[in-house]
What does this fold into?
Amino acid sequence: MNLRRLYQRLRDPRGTQADLEEEVRSYYDTLESRRVEEGLSPEEARRLTRAACGPPAHVIEEVRVSRPEAVVETAMQDVRYALRLLRRNAGFTAVAVLSLALGIGANTVIYSLMESILLRSLPVADPESLVVLNWQSRPPQNANKDWVHVVHGVQGMLWPGDRGTLVTGMFPYPAFELLHEQNGAFSTLFGYFDGRNRTLAYRGQAATAHTEFVTGEYFRGLEVSPAAGRLLDREDDRPGAAPVAVLSYAASQSRFGGPVDAVGQSVLVDNVPFTVVGVAPPEFFGVDPAAVPDLFLPMRTTLLVDGEQAARMYRDSNFYWIEMMGRLRPGVSMAQAQAELAPRFHQWVAATATTDGERANLPALVLNPGAAGLGSLRRQYSKPLYVLLAMVGLILAIACANIANLLLARAAARRREMAVRLSLGAGRWRVVRQLLTESVMLASLGGALGVLFAVWGVRALTFLFSNGRENFTLHAELNWKVLGMTAALSVLCGLLFGLAPALQSTRPNVMPELKNGRWGGPRRRALHVLVIAQIAMSFLLLVGAGLFVRTLQKLHAVQLGYARENILLFSMDARQAGHRDPEIATFYTDLRRQFERLPGVSSATLAQSSLINAGFMGPALKGPMKVGGVTLDGARVLSAGPRFHSTLQIPLLAGREIDERDLPNTTPVAVISERLARRYFGSENPLGRRITLPGEKRELEIVGVSANVRHGGLKNGETAMTVFVPISQVAPERVTYALRTSGDPLRHVRSVHELVREADSRVPVTNVVTQAAEIDRTISREVTFAKLCTGFALLALLMACVGLYGTMSYSIARQTGELGIRMALGAPRAVVVWMVLRQVLLLAAVGLAISVPAALIGSTVVRSFLFETSPHDPRTLLSAGAILAVAAIVAGLVPARRASRIDPLVALRHE
Amino acid sequence: MGKSAELLQGTLDLLILRTLALQPLHGVGIADRLEQVTNGVFVVGPGSLFPALHRLADRGWISGEWGELQTGRRAKVYALTAAGRKRLTEEKRNWERVSLAVNQVLAEGL
It folds into this structure.
């Protein structure tokens, strides 16, 4: 192809066309004049020439379509025509594009979350050759609920596996050494351990940093290269090596002004000096997509940071804590690696069992693919995401049905146009292609707008999912994979809702259409099927929304037994900053007194954690508790500071609450909850009685009885028997303060920070939150689902109503003649209205009849998301049905009233 | 048009190139000459001729210039370019090979 000519043609299409026309005209003229010279009349010459050569326009068209750019030209023509039509029907276009944009946007958001959580690989070299080491065994408790297992203690997470087993990735350190040393399957095997939040101090400024302790081969095994400096290696992970640290890229920017500036700096981690030797690359977040470590430290430095406690962890073969990942040697499969390692681990773990009971239930090594990192996010979110995906899929289906409906109605109106075009000789495929261009354009506009919605939606949803956690990220983004998916989805939608109307309106038998303007039955049936489908799908979403809203209501109705409003919570850990017993208790108490003196704060207290999270924190006291010879079964211990009950408004039924008289050296005391008092003391007065702690060789004197409080979360918490003990008498570590304020609790955040900085600038204040928000955080998934589903359901309902309205309007326009005759014969208006509404209700009834069974089956899928709500909750089903019926009537009423105002004369003339 | 539709793909191109190798011609001239030299076997209508001319021009083998005929009528006159001349030689060689092969097949069939 001569590019200069192509360029010329594209630059000046009109000139090219004129040139061609003149050339062809001159050809015909020459032939004609030749015939005239032979003696024919000019008219005859003209006729004969055309008969021999065909019309000149035909020749011009032949040349045009034979050009390579003709394909593009035709498409552009179609696009221009489509755009003109879309612009002319602005109302229709707006409704269609907006509903599609919402549908496609919602799908893009959910897909981008799925892509980041379920599909994406770790950003390291060759992630496919990484495997995670897990083990599984039967639950460690036997029939008598006694703990019989080689695992005596854990630090990490367990999750349910197949057939009632428990699975985890934690191992004792000696097991890591064993697998690490003799290894033919892995080129590298490395370990890591979530160090959780530590205090990172730099130039006197303390803040919280999420730490990850990693073995020497961690970075080498993951094949990551540094953004600055160097990464950790084997030499750094030896006892006695100089303590060094690697920062995450984000942390180097936020705290040190950039990766290069960070290298070589000295920092304090929990008061232990470290040197920053390097910075990880920006995309690297470790091996757990749910975590965002700020600081990577050599495994062995736990000895420096945690002291003797850590030293015990290295020696203990029954304490499980280190997690491992390996990189397979080239050519070794995961199954081969498992076959090699599993027997060796079995042999080792058998030797750590001391009783027959332990030997009967040994952990078995299992390898899992590690390409996508650890599975915690996948386990947590895969089911909610699939449920959400189903919902947004329904939304999009409703949107498509809606547009198909509108297009069908419009296709009927354009049927004459189509018939004319077809009879003038346009190819059917050409007309169908033009109609499809229109619908795909519509879908593309919807898709483009949908991407904008998605940008906002991804942010909103990440926030909703984050549960209020500070350093939470889903790493969700609109990357090319997601955008490609969106584009494909848009085009597919366009073809989907465009094809049926396009084929219908270009059916070959065009003659009846030209003869009269009426159209036949099949298309109306198609309209009805689409409306019924919309109603059925809307009902499903309404039921879903109803169930989640009901769950939320039930959760909000849970009696906590303590104040929810006007409480400010925040946490700190003075032990990490270097405070030790017994001074630490004084440090905490002094701070409490200062907080209480803040203007606007009526009282202040502290405890080992907030009450809503009390179920997840370690026990304040170890070993069984007894009253006389009877063991307290199921009692929970919460260490609390002075004025705990009055600050949180937990009523005291007898005696006193914990106060400032309870010091480390005074008589150990306890306040018990009413339920515990009833159960173990019956009608006797528990005041002055004692709880004995054989394990700690201590006795607690009961000094008060309080009302019951709910421990732990709203969903799986319990109104347990509680033993409150003074925090000053149990060697406090991390504590959570609670301030009772007048007005907005968050107004006092700054004063709190100032007071703590004055007391000790090394202690960072963390997790500042109102009590109400702290409680809602525990049910964020339910809140998210209730909000999202309600939004989705309303959207679906609205679209279904638009569809219903459109269909009814159309059907009435068609029935004008019939209605006119009826009215001329004296049918009252009410009868006409009822005729229309009856159709609407019939459609709704058919839709419901289809979707009630579907809803009954579908809702069982979300059973695990519900709280005290049956998936077949009759109230929800009834109200969803009622809402739908009302919406249908409203949508039908407008066309019905219009029908009743038909003037019989006009109607009959119309006919 | 009827007969030319059965022309082998590319044959018309070859014939046009060959015709223009002798002298520059306008559309009617080319059609006349083709009919003439093939003794009326090939009657090329404008529906085939013009797409072929534009296809050849697009490839740079021929180029068209507006000029005046003896009758005083304006017409686009096509001439072979240097690239067209080269192409014609190749096409001719090809054609000879093909027709030789076809003739052999036909001869053997007898």
Observations:
- Chain A has a mean pLDDT of 84.
- Residues 780-824 of chain A form the longest helix (45 residues).
- The two ends of chain A are 59 Å apart (CA to CA).
- Residues 3-68 of chain A form one domain.
